[in-house]
Request: fold
Amino acid sequence: MNVLVIGSGGREHALAWKIAQSPLLNKLYIAPGNSGTEEHGENVSLDTNNFPLVVDFLREKNVKMLVVGPEDPLVMGINDYVRMQPDLKDIKVVGPNSEAAQLEGSKEFAKEFMAQNNIPTAKYASFSIEDLEQGKIFLDSMEAPYVLKADGLAAGKGVVILDDLEEAKAELESMLGGKFGMASEKVVIEEFLSGIELSVFVLTDGTHYHMLPNAKDYKRIGEGDTGLNTGGMGAISPVPFADESFMKKVLDRIVEPTINGFSAYGLHYEGFVFFGLINVDGNPYVIEYNVRLGDPESEVIIPRIKTDLLALMAKMGTPQFESAKVEFDPRAATTVMLVSGGYPEGYKKGLEISGLDMVEGSIVFHAGAKNSDDGIVTTGGRVMAVTSMDSEWKNALIMSYVNAAMIQFEDMDFRKDIGFDL
Ligand code: AMP
Ligand code: GLY
Reply:
């Protein structure tokens, strides 16, 4: 089978690494990919937001599976566009259609879906510019801290949490006034939930699902979970506090009602569901849905999946999907993200990376890195994720740190405290 993976991060390197291990694979393409994905397939420069070009590529290369890494093409309707082509009906698109992708693309849609399906989440109300005054009155009725969320995709920056009521009102006005462009035409205000977050993943064909390993990521740039939000600075799988009884609550209260909700809502969903959860006194609540895998969560969950993931994805929508067995490696996995100095604000690009050949006992998943005439150079803020596995997550973490220290580029930075809170 020929496969095209869309994306260029550590998540896509991990997907490419895994897919390349499948005996079902004939040829793997990654658009645009990075220096890591190039070890497992052919990187192609294809404008993946230009869907006519994507379908031309699928035809030309006889691709039978399209795996969409990031959310944007899904929200923009790449699944719908491919499935509209009469001659491409047999292509498996891993990632939901645009309507189902609203679970990530619209906070209001996701909140309504959860309300309809009795899925535990923070209490909320949604406002647009016409009801700014009601929004302020609603804030008066809430307790600090105030959680304001731009309805649409805002590159991970659309959530603002404030302690001061007057600041929250001003922020609401600014968001509804266009602070995040179209994304904040509507704003969801919700109750603040206090607890520890975790990420739970399933692969579903819309009716049946398989649990994948869970993970905890570290989103803030600074040690002790301080400073600006990032795409993720490291991750651990499995999550030590997500024991059997907690995961049973996650299944019964969240995963099953979500999958059942797809049919009830008429949502076409084949792909990964990423449940962003928070553990409030032993009870799980949904903070957000994502319609894709996480990054850097992929760099710890994919290495723990023993089953042939390509074969499993190919079975979606057939009776073999339900009966498939998904096996996990019982060892823990940890990853430490190496970032460019200044990230998540301004940072340099094109920095030469050395020391990769010194790494022993870890897998280095490349993110913002590419091959060039000068060897591998940085192209982004999050540059590489150093993943290790061991029966004790603390030993895996030590291995990740030992190998992180082997890799060098100008102003390289990483968090030294991944797992500190566990
Ligand atoms: P989101 O983009 O929805 O993942 O939100 C970004 C981050 O804001 C989450 O990872 C949480 O840390 C935090 N957050 C979002 N909603 C809430 C909430 N209702 N209560 C507490 N923290 C929240
Ligand atoms: N690491 C969080 C995300 O992928 O959204």
